[in-house]
Design goal:
The protein is α+β, with helices and mostly antiparallel strands. Helix content is 25%, strand content 29%. It contains four helices and eleven strands, in the order βαβββαααβββββββ.
Amino acid sequence: MSLVKLNPMFHKNTRSLGDIVFYERNGVLFNRVKGERKKAASAVELEIRKTFRHMTSSWSGSTDAIRKAWNAYALAKGAGLSGYNRFIKENYTPAKAGTPLQLCRQMGDIKAPTLTVATATVSGSITGNYVNPAGNPDGKFIQVLAINKKAGETQEKAHVVTEAVTAAAGDFEITGLIPGDTYFIYAVFTDVNGAAVTKVSESAALTAIAAV
């Protein structure tokens, strides 16, 4: 806003000149620049926003072990990217396609589990099985995550279950999901349960629908 002196001939007939608007306050004439109208986002822009919301929501819903593995992976790859930026860079294509992400990169020599889905009987739940590959002695804990395929569009947070691995195969169950919604199920093995983790497997993934 600025104070102006305008030729008297404009006072009665002119309220704007180009992008400049004139207005009077307490008998004093002022001017301001018109605000720009924001254009509505295009379909392409909306899709890009949706893609990034899904990735950032998935990253936020991941565990400390998974983020630690990405940081180590990014450091090894160089290029000055953080673990988060590397995660975004490598997951844009699957996120845009609506398929499971590469939720975790391998840290150490630990192998990834094999996942299968079983028939859930409890509404809002997903159950399944995992197999610990032979020669995987450091796979002592498993983290199973359920992330809604619509993550970023809803307020639902990721669901995480951590269990000790006591056999070559085991079961998992995730409850509290939205009945009928589609979820990406991810699982990783870790050598310890907690911040002291030094080995994390690459993530295994599948798609499942929460029981109705």
